[in-house]
Structure formats: C-alpha cells, structure tokens
TrEMBL record:
<dbReference type="Pfam" id="PF00106">
    <property type="entry name" value="adh_short"/>
</dbReference>
<protein>
    <recommendedName>
        <fullName>Short-chain dehydrogenase</fullName>
    </recommendedName>
</protein>
<keyword id="KW-0560">Oxidoreductase</keyword>
<dbReference type="InterPro" id="IPR036291">
    <property type="entry name" value="NAD(P)-bd_dom_sf"/>
</dbReference>
<dbReference type="InterPro" id="IPR002347">
    <property type="entry name" value="SDR_fam"/>
</dbReference>
<dbReference type="GO" id="GO:0016491">
    <property type="term" value="F:oxidoreductase activity"/>
</dbReference>
<comment type="similarity">
    <text>Belongs to the short-chain dehydrogenases/reductases (SDR) family.</text>
</comment>
<dbReference type="InterPro" id="IPR020904">
    <property type="entry name" value="Sc_DH/Rdtase_CS"/>
</dbReference>
<dbReference type="GO" id="GO:0016020">
    <property type="term" value="C:membrane"/>
</dbReference>
Length: 250
C-alpha cells in the first residue's frame, strides 16, 4: 500500500502515519519542519514501514509537484493521499492586517489543491485510489474570530463535494471533519469543547478511511451541534418566509 501524507511532522498527520506504519506499506511523509519530520519517519520505519520524506511547503506548487512526481516514480500505484497540512489562526481583525488570514487560506485551500490534483492523472489511469481531505467542524460552523479558517474549511468541503461528483466512482473521496484535537494547532486555544487526544483521533480517522466514508465528523458531540444548527436555521428561514410573504403578499 502506497500512501502520501502532508503535515506529517506533528498532530493528526503524525499519528495517522503511525497508524498506517507496518510491513508492506510505503509512506511518503511531507512537512516543512525537516527535523520533526525525520523523527516521525524514524518511528514509522521502526514499526516496519518503508518511508520517503519530503521537506516541502504545500503552498509552493512547484516543489510540491516535484515531491509527488518523485514518489510516483518510486511506486507502481498510489492508493491513498491525505491532504492534512493545515494552519489555524484567529483573524485578529482589530490589527487591520490580513496577512495571517491570507496565509491560512493559502495553506488550507491552495495547499490541498497542490497536494491532490497532481495525483489525479495517475489515479484516473489506474482507475482506483482514495483521496482524503482534512476539513474541520469549521467546515460547517464559522467560529467567532475564525472567519478565514472557517472560510478555508468551507472551501475544502466544497472541493470534496465537487471532486466526488466529478471523478469516477472508482476513486473514493473522503472529507474528515475533526473537532478539537490535542495538537500544536489547538494548544493555544482557550476554549476547545469535546477535545480528544491525537492518537484517538488518528484511530478514528483511519477507521473512517478504511470504511471509505464520504464524510466523517467527530467526536459524536459535534454531530449534535451541527444537526441542531441546521434545524435552527431551517426554523429561522421558515419564520422569515412567513414574514416576507405576509409583508409582500399584496
């Protein structure tokens, strides 16, 4: 089995790599921080996997494509691509500077496209493959102060839905929507309800990928929150329609 994972130096990407690390698996692990990436790779090798590493920034289309081409040259097929690299930062609107917001969009959206799209000709040729996009519960709910992050994750959700409709059914598309997971990204968050450990999250993600789920939201509490949001919005829309019809019926 040949698997390509971005953001593999820490957090979800690191622990998902550990879940897949075993004999017969060739992992391509990508991240910007070479030292941390090498530590992940060494542990995966100890667990029996063959590992190739690429120190790359997914916002750099050229270097990401070079890494992908190199990995494809080493294997006879690609089974799974996990676009996990992501950035979570608050908007800090009071500063009047959109630089960080732009960076969030670039990493979380452009980075996903740079990771997935170059693999598609190979998947189409082999008539198989599985692409996994790591979104967030923020793909469904925009948080206070997190407009750019939510926008990026809404975009990832849109990409997953469109690609699933566009690509042949022989290529699986999964959108992973975690809530708060213990990681470097969330350690600064003061409010993180339903937070779960990284190793637990990784096991849940791999289980969902094995089942070829179209979308996986976890932990379960977020299903309730998102469902309630949809019901509340529906009630509000229906109420607004009644007011609109009453006001403009003549």
């Amino acid at each position: 089995m040949n698997i390509f994972i971005t953001g593999a130096s820490s957090g979800i990407g690191e622990y998902v790599a550990y879940e897949y690390a075993k004999d017969g698996v060739h992992l391509a692990l990508c991240a910007r921080r070479k030292e941390k990436l090498d530590q992940t790779a060494d542990k995966c090798r100890e667990m029996g996997a063959k590992v190739t590493t690429y120190s790359v920034d997914v916002t750099d289309q050229h270097s990401t494509k070079e890494s992908i081409d190199d990995f494809l040259s080493k294997i006879n097929r690609i089974d799974l691509v996990i676009a996990n690299a992501g950035l979570g930062e608050l908007d800090a609107l009071h500063k009047g500077n959109p630089t960080m917001m732009n960076k969030v969009i670039n990493v979380n959206v452009i980075g996903v496209q740079n990771t997935i799209v170059p693999f598609l000709p190979t998947m189409l040729k082999q008539a198989s493959g599985h692409i996994a996009l790591v979104g967030s519960v923020a793909s469904h709910i925009a948080w206070v102060g997190g407009g750019a992050y939510a926008a990026s994750k809404f975009a990832v959700k849109a990409l997953s839905e469109s690609w699933r409709k566009t690509l042949p059914k022989t290529i699986d598309v999964t959108l992973i929507c975690p809530g708060f997971v213990e990681s470097e990204m969330t350690e600064k968050a003061e409010w993180k309800p339903f937070v779960i450990k990284t190793d637990v999250a990784a096991k849940k993600i791999v289980n969902a990928l094995n089942k070829k789920k179209k979308m996986f939201i976890f932990p379960w509490q977020w299903h309730v929150v998102i469902a309630f949001k949809k019901i509340l919005e529906l009630l509000m829309v229906n109420a607004a329609r009644k007011v609109y019809k009453k006001r403009y019926k003549n």
